[in-house]
Amino acid sequence: MTMTPQQLRDQEPTLELINTELASRMARQSESGAKVDTKTVFLVGFAATATQFLASRSFEPFTGTAAFAAYAVAIGYGIAIFNLAEYEDIKPREVLDTHGRSTKGAALVALAATRVGMFEKNAHLHARKTRRWTVSLTMLVIGVCLSTASILLHTDVHGRHAEPGEPSPSPSTSSASTQSYGYLRRSDPRWHGEEG
Length: 196
Known about the structure:
Order of helices and strands: HHHHH
Strand content: under 5%
Distance between the termini: 102 Å
Number of helices: 5
C-alpha cells in the first residue's frame, strides 16, 4: 500500500490518531504485564512460605509429598514468568536514524507499522505470562488443599483416643505414659475412677 506524497499529507490527521491510539494501547498492555509480574511475586512468596510451613509440621507422607510437588510446580512456573523476554517498545535512536528525514506522513505510517508489530509480539508474550500465572495459581491452590489434608490426616491418625469396643493400650504403655507425662488416657479405667 504505497501512497503518493499528497495522499500522505491528506492522511496525516488519521495517522496521528492511529499512532496515538497504538501508543496508548501499548502502554496499557505494558501496565497489564507489570500487574501479572507483581501478582507473581506474591504468589511465589506465598508458595515458598506455605512450603516452609508444611515442612515444619508433621504430615501424612502421601498427601504431604503431593503438596510439596504442587508447591514446586507453582514456584517453578512463577519463576518462569520472569524468564520471558521484556515487552518490546520503540527504540528512540533507531526511529530517529530511520525516519528523521522522512515526511511527517511517511514517518507516521512507519511508526504505526512498527507499533502494530510490537503490539502483536507483546500480546503473544502476555498470553504466555498469563497462562504460566494461571498454572502457578492453580498449583498453589492444590498445594494448600493437599497440605491441609495432609496435616489433618496426620493429626487424625495420631490424635485418636480408644473408643468403647476398641482394644485399650497395653498396661505398660498406660503406666509409662502416666509416669512420663503425668496424665491418663481416656481408655485407661483409672480415667473413669475405676481401679484396674
